[in-house]
Specification:
The structure is a single chain. The protein folds into two domains: 172 residues, 3-Layer(aba) Sandwich (Rossmann fold); 76 residues. The longest helix is centred in the N-terminal third of the chain and has 16 residues. It contains eleven helices and ten strands. Helix 8 links the parallel strand 6 and strand 7. The strands form three sheets. It has a six-stranded parallel β-sheet, with helices on both faces. It has a two-stranded antiparallel ribbon with strand order 1-2. By secondary structure, it is an alpha/beta fold. The chain starts with a helix and ends in an 11-residue tail after the last strand. The structure holds magnesium ion. Magnesium ion binds next to loops.
Length: 267
């Protein structure tokens, strides 16, 4: 039996699974199973992962830095709830864009470059103070990446800069399992544009790939590339219902409470 979290977050059709159980859902290309899981049909050959919120917990690094940058720029004590609200809007996967939009909306006009420069002093070590980057935690083990790499081609498409990516991933043993890593510096147009996914595919059939992400911009990029999308959305996440509905509307094949819960989908 699936664990409670998986059932709670389970496939979108969890409520009406009785009607659909065993029936092949052509539209979504998924096959509900008796265990309440949905597996992917056909099984992808290429697994492309987003990084933040999928492979790395960034609440203490990027998101905390965004809050601190907002307080620094506007003098207001903005809250986590407000941050989640802004984060859930399209175009805000990039924290610098989000801060620029948010501060401007609060009456403190802020350019993207200004937001970026202010953000850096909280994210990186600065002026003798340790940066929030030190709070980052990997969400999967190197062993897990190794197991997946035996069956699938693994790639990464992230909104991080190459420098941010390297800092966190050069010390992780799982990094070498990923074939192509596309960062913000490797594409002209970042998410929600599909450029990074198309670059990874290099002309291969998008139907053979799956993108795993946690943001609306990830879902938009996947849809534009014709790549199936699985959303990471923990049951306790802020705005769970709205985000689940949004992911569904954008054609996500399902929701996972965490990345390691992908296992039954790949059987
Ligand atoms: Mg993310």
């Amino acid at each position: 039996m699936a664990d409670r979290e998986t059932l709670l977050a389970g496939p979108f059709e969890a409520q009406d699974i009785k009607l659909k159980r065993g029936a092949y859902n052509i539209q979504r290309g998924t096959l509900p199973t008796l265990r309440g899981h949905t597996r992917l049909e056909p099984i992808p050959e290429i697994l492309i992962f987003d990084v933040d919120g999928v492979l790395v917990d960034v609440r203490g690094s990027f998101w905390r830095s965004a809050l601190e940058t907002m307080r620094f720029l506007t003098g207001r004590r903005v809250t986590w709830a407000e941050l989640y609200k802004w984060k859930n809007q399209p175009g805000n996967n990039d924290d610098w864009s989000m801060v620029s939009n948010w501060a401007t909306a609060l009456g403190r006009p802020t350019t993207y470059e200004e937001a970026r420069d202010a953000f850096q002093q909280f994210y990186w070590d600065y002026d003798g103070r340790p940066g929030n980057v030190r709070q980052e935690k990997m969400l999967i083990s190197a062993k897990q990446a190794e197991r997946w790499a035996k069956r699938f081609e693994l790639d990464l498409f992230t909104g991080r800069t190459r420098q941010e990516f390297t800092y966190t991933f050069e010390r992780w043993a799982g990094t070498r399992q990923f074939r192509t890593v596309v960062t913000m510096d490797d594409v002209t147009r970042k998410k929600p544009y599909p450029d990074g996914l198309l670059k990874i595919l290099g002309g291969r059939d998008p139907g053979t790939a799956l993108y795993v992400g946690d943001n609306i911009d990830d879902a938009l990029a996947a849809r534009a590339a014709g790549v199936r999308f699985l959303a990471i959305l923990p049951p306790g996440a802020y705005g769970y219902r709205q985000r689940a509905a949004k992911f569904r509307e954008l054609g996500a094949v399902g929701l996972l409470p965490r990345t390691t819960a992908i296992q039954p989908w790949l059987k």
